[in-house]
Structures are given as structure tokens and as C-alpha cells.
Amino acid sequence: MMLETYLLLAAALFSVGLFGALSQQSVVMVMMGLELMVNAVIVAAAALWLYTSPERPDGQVLVLVAVTAMAVEMAMGFAVTTALFRARDVDMVDMAADLADHRGSGGHGGHGGHGDHGGHGDHSGHGGHGNPEHHGGHEDHGDQGDPEDHGGHRGHEGSGNHGHHGDGGER
Amino acid sequence: MSGVAPPWAVLLVPALLIVLGYGAAAGTAALRARAAGAAPVSGLTAPARESARLLVQRRRTIPGTDTLLWRLGGALVPVAAVLAALVIPLGSTAVSDPSVGVVWFNAMEVVVWAALWMLGWGANSVWGLVGGYRFLIQGLSYELPHMFALTAAALGAGSLRVGDVVAAQEQVWFAVLMPAAFVVYLVSALAMAFWGPFGTPVGRDLAGGVAAELSGVDLLVLRAGRYVFLAAVAAMAVPLFLGGGAGPLLPGWVWTLVKTAGVLALLVWLGHRLPAVRMDRFTEVGWVVLVPVTLLQVLAVAVYVLVR
Amino acid sequence: MVGTVVFAVCAVGAVASGVAVFVVDSMARATFALLASFLLTGVAILLLGLSYLGVLVILMMVMEMMVMAVFMIMYMMNPAGLMPMTMVHNRAGSLAVSGVVFLLLAAGIVLVPWPEREGTPPPDPTLALGEAIMGRHMLVMMLVGLVLFATMVAATVLATHRGRYERYGDDLRRGRPDDPIGGGLDR
Lengths: 171, 308, 187
What we know:
The complex is a heterotrimer of chains A (about 170), B (about 300) and C (about 190). By secondary structure, chain B is mainly α. Chain B is about 70% helix and about 0% strand. Chain C has helices at about 1-20, 25-45, 50-75, 90-110, 125-135, 140-160, 165-170. The longest helix of chain C has 25 residues, at about 50-75.
């Protein structure tokens, strides 16, 4: 009976993580969801080891592999996030959809070259005082950036069903 | 060799740690008094006077604090010290001697990372946050050499159980067998207790760093917790490298306390003598010098274990 | 009996703090909610008798979440949650998908006839694990080591924006690298 309880715990953790990974827009929050899912795998593997075949060490080895997967996921995730942010001021999954199928979407415009000075100034701004009008603030830097670029940015947001961070006040 | 103490001994651990921590605080005050030209004896009561002052001091309130994380961070420092000390045997008896005692100690001592960062973040102050970040960098610099130093001791004993590590030193202390690991352990002990040269997270150049906005009881908890933590890491050096309670004439628990007090005195004196280390410098030293040194030390111990 | 109670508290707490990650406004609190979830599952693993792996999870998660906190503050627009905002897309769909997934998993967990336990746990699971990864399962250990090393190199290469030409000049002739932050070895 304990095996089922542990597996139910794992299933619940996995579902919560899945919800986070699917619904969150920020890359960091998506990674938190992924971590919860890997954590569920750890719990499930440990419980399966103890309640089905404790004499064989395979379950423990699987836990070790899952822990490693978590570390790798985290390191590579943040490395890619940092590279993306450096290159074009992107910290949202919707704006990093290079590999997505963009038929009928204005998404490409937003991928131009956001790695301009405006982006960097903005970065320190939102790290410091948590301005919800982050991308609204980006518009203010238009004098430094390329106007067409921003047009594309806006178009992307409008099409992508998440226009709120163009005008962060709306929730 | 190792036994498990009765449950009431759980209360003995914080009591002993507080006594040792008070000794460390008094020693620091005495050293400071001597450096200032005053009589060192006045340092013996200084921590008590300071504690009383902080107890009656009114708490400062700051707008925009994250009170939950702030208070939690302060409380975690002494709690982590006590939890880490649960596996340290006094003589031959420990409150608990789990089969992974060394890893347990390591895990509890890492909790201080979270504690200091919470303290720095919660105060809604730039000094605190910079102090918290400094400690994270410090942690990332000292943690790997520290882990390899612990690994060397565990490898020499062939066990992660602290009792087995003590038992393995009947012939020769690990401090003699693996001096590099012992030295690295002492360095990381200073670093993890943000003490002396590694005190920049609470440094004067940051107006107190993570402690900048603390006052009254909160500040007392952090300061006392830091001394208690220093006592805990000093106490762990005894079973790991100094033969635990082994020694002539006196019973084991006395020897443990004597050795702990000795290591603690060394740490306090070093903290008083050494200049502050900047984190950007220590990071490179940690990764480029200490990690290879400890790796080589682990290799040497492994060869020794094989040919012994 | 005590074990059951502890497990129940840990399980409920782990799921609740997992949910809290996506509910709270403050990113710092979200990070520590995730840490709480990991720590509670670590205790649940300890209850299974896997002392090494349980403590390892606790140790690793504390360090990992502290690194996570740095990136949270760095990349989130509203780290302290002082001005609450929602950064989600397709909330209803995600809720439906994860709910269905949970129901499917739960149905499978309840309905599948799980095999009977074969044998008993070894007296020291840590020793069993160590002998496995240094013996029959050594390939796993070697691969894990390689993957971790490759990750360290790849993550560093991806995350740093300065290469050797920035450090040593266009013709790589500079004796001392020109770094924004000096190291401790005076190189």
C-alpha cells in the first residue's frame, strides 16, 4: 500500500511541475516546473526500488541518474537563458520560439536583434526594482533601438495571446 | 567503538555549543581589547554585556521587508549549527551516528548559504543583498575543496559514518596522514562561518552586509549563531582529523572538548590576525589551487588505502 | 506509525509547497517554496531507508536553489512581488492537461497490479549503491561523469560572452589576459 502512496505523491508532484512548465512564461519559472517533474521521478524511482526489488541496486542508480539530470538541466537551462538574454534581451519562452512553426504569426519580427543598448539598460532596471512594465519600459528606450525592431516586438506580443507584458499593469 | 547517547543528550549539544561559542566570542573580545590597548580580561564579560544590550534594544522596523524569509534566515544559522553537530561524537558517544554522518554534516552546513541569503534579501536593503551574494560566491568557492577534504577523511576510513572515521585513526591521526585536507578543512571552516578573513558578507565595507539592518534580538541570534556555528565546525574537525576522543589519561569526552577548544582557539586567533579576503580573489584561488590540491590529496589517500 | 505520520506531513507539505511555487508573487519566496518541496521529498526518501540519496538530495537542492535564486532575481521582472503581476499563458489549458495527466497516472497507480517485493533491502543501501556504480553499473557512472563534465564546459561556453580574443587581444599576443574582474593568482 505504501508503494501506491509514494507513487501518488510522485504523480502529484509531476502534475504540479507539468502545470508550471506549461503555463509559466518566464524561462526560470519553466525550469522550476521541470525540476519538480524530475523530483517526482526521484521519488517514484526510490519507492519502486524499495517496494519491488530492494535486492537489486538499479532503483538507486536510477535515482542517481535523475539527480544528475536535474543538475544538467539546471546548468544548461541557465546557460542558454543567459546566452539568449545576452543576444537579444529575451527572458520569456514565447519570445524564444525560434524552432516553432510560425505560420500566420508575427513572431519572427520579435527575433531581430534585440541585443542593443536599450536592452541592457532595461535589464538592470528590472533586476533592481521589479518594474512590472518591463517591456513597456523597453518602448521608452526606443531612441536607442531600432524602431522597426520594436514594431516587430509589439506585433509578436499582439499575436501571441499574451499581450499583458506589453502593458504590464493589466493582469 | 561508537555508541548512541540517550535522547536527553539532544539538549546537551546546543548547551555545549553555546558554551564553546561564548568562549569564542569572549576570546575575540579579549583579542580586540588587547589590540586596542585595554586589559584583555574585560573581554571575558563583553559578550554577556553585548547580549544584554541587544536583548533590551528595540527592533528597528523597515518598510518593505520580507519578514518571513528574514526571520527564517536568522533562525536557520544556529539551527543548522545544532543539526550539523548532532553527528559529532563526544568521546565515543554521539547523539546520532548515521551511516552517512559526514554527508549529513555537509548538508546541514550548506543550509547557512540559504540562511544568509534570506537574511540579506529579507531586509530590503542593498547592503544586505550584496552581502548575501558575497556569501553565495564564497560558498561556491569553498564548497568543492571542503567536500573533497571531507571525502579524503571518509576515504581514509572507508566509511561515511563519523564513528568509523574516528575508529580508523587509532594508529595515526588523519591530520598527519592528510595534512592538505586538514588545512583546507580549516580554511573552509573559516569561510563557512563567514569568520575572520572570510567575513566580507558581514563586512564593515558593506555597513555590516547581511547584518546591516538587523537589530536587537535578531542581531543577537545572528551573532550568537555565527559563534555557535564556528564552534560546530571546529568540533567536527576533531572526529574527522584529530582522532576524536583518543588521548592518554583523561576520558574521551574531555579530550574531545579539549581538542575542540584548541581548534576553536586557532580559528578565533586566525580570524583576528588575517586580513579580509576579497571574493573575486578567493574564487580563483579556490578553484585553481584548492580543488586540485584536495583532488591530489584524495588520490594520495586512495593509494594509501590500497597499499596499506 | 510515526513513519506514516511523518510521511503524510512530508507528502502533503511537498505538494503544497510545489503549488505555492506558482502561486506566490515574490520570486524569492517561490524559490524557497521549491526548496521546501525538495527538502520534504528528501525526508520522504530518507524514510525509505535511502539515507545517502536522501541526504544527497537535501544537500544538492539547497545549493541548487541558492544558485536558482540568483538567476530568479536576475531574470524576473518583479523579483520581490511588490507589484503583483501574472506571467502565464494558457492557464486553463495547462490546468486541464496537468489534471488529466494526474488522473491518468493515479488510475494507473491504483489499477496496475504491482509486483510483490522480491528479497529484502540490503543492510547498507549506500554500500550496495557504491558497489553497483563501481561494479556492474560502472558504465552509468562513467557516462554521468562525462555528461557532467561536458555540461560544465558547454554551460561556461554558452554563458560567457568573452572569448580568448577579448582576453588576449586580436592576435592573442597579450601576456596577461584583460579580464573585467581580476583573479586571486595575479595571472
